[in-house]
Amino acid sequence: MKMVMMFMVMMMVSESSMIDQTCKETPDFNLCVSLLNSDPRGSSADTSGLALILVDKIKVLATKTLHEINGLYKKRPELKQALGECSRRYKTILNADVPEAIEAISKGVPKFGEDGVIDAGVEASVCEEGFKGKSPLTSLTKSMQKISNVTRAIVRMLL
């Protein structure tokens, strides 16, 4: 019984250290650890698996942001043009960038995965700039930029 407990503790330490070691190589250690520990797949994932988890987080955030944009159309009609641009940008993240990253990472072609992840951050930045400093989406776009930067760092480890 003691042997089984020791093995389980050692496994938890090694799982945690894989996430910790990987996240130390990213621009935001705390965000990285938080995102990966919040997903049950993180505890047993290799570097590719960790990257895919983060791409899933990009997808979830893009979906959430798109829902927010759709709600703002009614509440803030004066922002219709900027919201329309953001809607197109976030649809690009969901329909092009995320699938490209998932396919590339899954097939062992991380360079193209990196391109998709980088583009997600760029799309969020361009969306934010369209409001000329008066964006109701700032916290969501900043989150997308941060998650994209962390994901990119992990994808680069696969190159």
From TrEMBL:
Domain Pectinesterase inhibitor residues, every copy: 14-154
Signal peptide: 1-16
MF-aspect GO terms: enzyme inhibitor activity
Entries under SMART domains matching the protein: PMEI
InterPro entries named among the record's database cross-references: C/VIF1, Invertase/methylesterase_inhib, PCW_Enzyme_Inhibitor, Pectinesterase_inhib_dom
Keywords: Disulfide bond, Signal
Domain of life per record: Eukaryota
Pfam families xrefs: PMEI
Protein family per UniProt: Belongs to the PMEI family.
PANTHER family: PECTINESTERASE INHIBITOR-LIKE, PUTATIVE-RELATED
Protein name: Pectinesterase inhibitor domain-containing protein
